[in-house]
Structure formats: structure tokens, C-alpha cells
């Protein structure tokens, strides 16, 4: 098992994202081939652990995915779903809020989507947009988004107390890698639908977004809802890291098959 600690952001850390190598794969179990094999084993293990979580039906896991555009959120969702049974898992993608969502507090729509007991829930974007894009685009005044760090802290603490284990993953790519992925999208007609002109305006403010992410991560990483910064320029390495973190998290939870409600010994099926 990889030591997932190396990607975890400890409370009290000052985070300099530009100092974290997005191509770092030094911790990989071997070359690309070997890492893909190791990931396949982790995928199997994750499936077993999810079945136990589902059978136990008492606790849940919430995986929060954040990244710059083309950072690999969709690919990571696909990867996780290779391991898990969709019956006990669900993914929610958060777009710019609708009029109804904007008429409520920023946690309203995310709270409605949290996983039920036994489930793994994946947020593809999340309430962290409300302290990142909302901050950079000045969609609300600073005192409003600044107060949200405490609100997020309290809300995640509440979920944790109710039995939800929260894992927050920042898929960290370089601006060069993003440019390459955008070009790939433009060059391939089957990927045009993924390209959005507006993404270029966001890209132009790269440093502002990175600074907003760094502060959001620093202020909301806790022992019960930790952030991990995942080097994500190489997809095979990213998938291995994500799998390692999820397996590690579920192993620490150690979900158990429930005891049968009555004594099943001696029952004959005729
Ligand atoms: P995509 O993930 O490419 O489908 O894009 C979704 C868009 O919705 C991104 O540009 C996000 O920044 C935006 N978005 C998501 N949540 C919010 C939010 N709470 N406020 C403003 N924009 C948001
Ligand atoms: Mg997009």
C-alpha cells in the first residue's frame, strides 16, 4: 500500500501549489505498465471494500473532486466507477447554479446530494466552487465568500459526526498540460463537446485560481475531512494515487458484513 500521507495536506500547512510537481511520479510502484497492474489490484480491492460498506449500511464515503478545467475530474469518475458497483455509488456534477439554487444558501444543493448510509458519493465539482470561481469572478463580496470557510468546516464536521467519511482530491495539473489537453479537444471532433470558449478566460486567470485553491485547501483541510493534492499530469499515475487513497480510506473504516438478524444455522432450503 502506498503511503498516501505524502499527498495529504495537514492542518496548519502553508500550501504553495506551484512548488508541487504535477508530473511527479516518483512514488509509483514501477514504470507505467507496473503501475497500471498495481492499479488493477487496487480496483479489485476497492470493489470488495465497497461491497462491505454497502452491506454494513451504517456509514458513507464522500469523495470531492476539484481541478482546473481539463484537470481530469471526468476521467477520475470513470476510473472510480470501474471499481464500484453503481447500485451503491452515485456521482453528482455541479454546474453554475440555477436560479432556484442561487435563491438558497450555497450548501443547499450539495447537502441534497450527499451519499446515504452505505453509499459512496462522488462530487464532480462541489461547494468549493463557492470559494474559488465565485471568489475569482467576484460573484459575491469578499466577506461573504470568506465566511464560507467556517461554514464549510462546520458542515463537513457535521457530516463526519453523522458517519460520512470525506476525502477531498485536488487534481493538480500544470498550465502546459492544460494547454495540451485543450488542443487535443480542439483537434478531435469527438472531443469538441468538452471544449468551452469560456475555459480560456478561466485559464487566463490561472494564478488567481491557484491562489484561491491554495487558501481554500489550507483553511478546510482537517483530520476528518482531509485534502489531498494529487499530481495529475499523468493519468496513469493519477489513477493509481486516487485508488490508493480510496483503498486506504476504506481500509481504515474497516466496514463489516452485518451479523444476521436471526440464527441461520439449521435452515434447509427445499
Ligand atoms: P463543467 O464542469 O466543465 O461542466 O463546467 C461547470 C462550470 O460550472 C464551471 O465553469 C464551474 O466553475 C461552474 N460552477 C460550478 N459551481 C459553481 C458555483 N457554485 N458558482 C459559479 N459557477 C460554478
Ligand atoms: Mg469544462
What would you say this structure looks like, in words?
The chain has 270 residues and is α/β, with parallel strands linked by helices. It is built from 10 helices and 6 strands; from the N terminus they run E-H-E-H-E-H-H-E-H-H-E-H-H-H-E-H. The protein has helices at residues 32-56, 73-83, 99-102, 108-111, 133-136, 142-161, 175-187, 198-204, 206-220, 235-253; strands at residues 8-9, 60-67, 89-93, 120-124, 164-172, 227-231. Helix 1 (32-56) packs parallel to helix 10 (235-253) and helix 2 (73-83) crosses helix 10. The longest helix has 25 residues, at 32-56.
Describe the protein's topology.
Layout: E1 8-9, H1 32-56, E2 60-67, H2 73-83, E3 89-93, H3 99-102, H4 108-111, E4 120-124, H5 133-136, H6 142-161, E5 164-172, H7 175-187, H8 198-204, H9 206-220, E6 227-231, H10 235-253
Parallel strand pairs: 2-4, 2-5, 3-4, 5-6
Antiparallel strand pairs: 1-6
Helix pairs in contact: 1-10, 2-10
Bound molecules: adenosine monophosphate and magnesium ion (MG).
